[in-house]
Amino acid sequence: MTYALYELATNPPIQEKVRGEILQIMAKHKRNLTYESLKDMKFLKAVIQETLRKNTIVGFMPRVCRCSCTVRTSCNSPLTIQQGTSVLIPIHGVLHNPDLYADPDTFLPERFLEGEEEANKIDRCSFMAFGIGPKVCIGEPFARLELSLALALLLSEFQFSVCDKTPSKLIFDPKKRFMSTVKNGVHLSVKRLRHKEE
Fold this sequence. Notes:
The chain is α+β, with helices and mostly antiparallel strands. The chain has 2 domains: 1-57 and 92-192, CATH 1.10.630.10; 59-89, no CATH class. 36% of the residues lie in helices and 13% in strands. The protein has helices at residues 2-10, 12-28, 35-39, 42-54, 91-95, 117-121, 140-157, and strands spanning 60-64, 69-72, 78-81, 86-90, 158-161, 189-192. Strand 2 (69-72) and strand 3 form a beta hairpin. It is globular, with a radius of gyration of 19 Å. It is found in: Endoplasmic reticulum membrane; Microsome membrane. It comes from Stomoxys calcitrans. Its cofactor is heme. It is a peripheral membrane protein.
């Protein structure tokens, strides 16, 4: 939630675009946020996906190699991993690999919109914010639904912007090794929106 609001505050045109989608779909559904109305919010879904990609929560994913295999290192030399070897997959490294995600340090939700050229190029196996395969996080669908609902409610009522305490770049606390935590927090300015019917 924090990372999504930060990204939207630092990218006002994207915030306006997603708010426009939210308000339009809410109007179509008589201002009710339902499971169906949230499913219609394609750009909100892309914003969440891009937030999870750019701001990786968990840095590594532990796995055990089920069979011996040879992979290429960053220097393009072969490396054989023996069966039974414990490995750590660097999730942040995968989600910021420019070979997989063009311009990886830029917040571009459009890369996840269905029908967009880049969305068609993304290897589904490269996105592992919740893990992947049979050990994927069991709470992923609920977390996505909860985040969609919370963001839709907040963005329909408030505008988020940077303030003098907002960091220009998020610096993560190196002491928090399991889950990424922003050093010194994230400060934003919040302004209530006035809707026409008020």
